[in-house]
Known about the structure:
Elements: E1 4-13, E2 16-26, E3 31-35, H1 42-49, E4 57-62, E5 65-66, E6 75-78, H2 90-102, H3 111-127, H4 143-155, E7 161-165, H5 173-189, E8 193-197, H6 201-207, E9 210-215, E10 230-234, H7 236-254, E11 257-261, E12 273-277
The chain binds adenosine-5'-triphosphate (ATP).
Protein name: ABC transporter ATP-binding protein
Family: Belongs to the ABC transporter superfamily.
GO molecular function: ATP binding
Amino acid sequence: MTQIIFDDVWKEYGEHIVLERINLTLDDHEFLAVIGPSGAGKTTFLRMLLSQEAPTRGRILIDGEPIAPEPTADRGVVFQRYSVFPHRTVLGNVMMGPQWAASPLLGRLFGARRRAVEERAMALLTRVGLAEHAEKYPAQLSGGMQQRLALAQALIMKPKVLLLDEPFGALDPGTRKQMHELVSELWEENAMTIVMVTHDLPEAFLLGTRVIAVERPRKDPQAPERFGATIVSDYETKCRIVRDSRRFEADRAKARLTLVPDAFLPADGTSAAALVKD
Ligand SMILES: Nc1ncnc2c1ncn2[C@@H]1O[C@H](COP(=O)(O)OP(=O)(O)OP(=O)(O)O)[C@@H](O)[C@H]1O
């Protein structure tokens, strides 16, 4: 169970107000997509959730407690690129987090403990389709494979919150589609909340259970840094409608029912549709 609250959060760099009045309550197992124009502060929002930045004002609470001041293992992150360590093998990359967590001085485990971590890492690599590439180095992988590795690397720490910063931005459309499916499945399978920044509107509505748009509602042409961006739209209901209609479509396809427009015409002449068996 993970609930995240932004309570009147502001982020300023000197005179520059980047974000202001951010108020948001995220329920358990939410998939939040954050959209907005370039420079609106989306990455800053994510960095505050990672504790790489602290709010200038306001509070962020995770499960009722103030967010830890330092990054912790229960918050994982995947960036658009370079999340993985180039000099470690694929397997080594996935094993690294648990090894450092269990052995903070050496970053290495031995014997049965090492084998247990290796087994978990291999299971995850199988899950993301990289088992046969375990001994390769990241440079030998395609962009999509590197992102699958980055996901496995984050997931092995069993994060309560997974932060995704434009994770599919550098991928071609086919690979992107595969990654959408994988991330959706991983989100369903794991008890975690996802917060994803994206520039891609269809992607936001495809994956998100909630989509928020962040933008500057007030602009001062003389002093553009005087006002920060805030949440200007919250598409929670729209997401539910999109999700329900997708579920309806899936159920309809499963039951082999076809939607036929104008299958019968009501007496008042209005158009209608009916579901008929294939
Ligand atoms: N450490 C920092 N010091 C000063 N200003 C910063 C710092 N980090 C971010 N900013 C400023 O905050 C603003 C928002 O940056 P941010 O990267 O969060 O935007 P974004 O919405 O993620 O942009 P994009 O979509 O282009 O990635 C920018 O004007 C940026 O210059």
